[in-house]
Specification:
Blueprint lengths: L4 E7 L4 E6 L15 E9 L4 E8 L1
Antiparallel strand pairs: 1-2, 1-3, 3-4
Length: 58
């Protein structure tokens, strides 16, 4: 993954629950405090590229 990649963890209503920077090729985001359900992770680079990933939290 390229450098300077930011992430936002978003719930199904569009509320940003957590945001930060991806520190390595693999990063862990603590979701223990959130209820089970569907969430989205929005990844974005400084040049404007974005990717949205659906996440299921049990």
């Amino acid at each position: 993954m390229q450098r300077n990649v930011g992430y936002e963890l978003v719930n199904v209503t569009g509320v940003v629950l957590r945001r930060g920077m991806v520190e390595a090729n693999e990063s862990v985001v603590d979701t223990e405090e959130f209820a089970a359900g569907v969430y989205f992770v929005r990844l974005s680079t400084q040049n404007g590229a974005q990717r949205l990933v659906k996440v299921f939290h049990y």
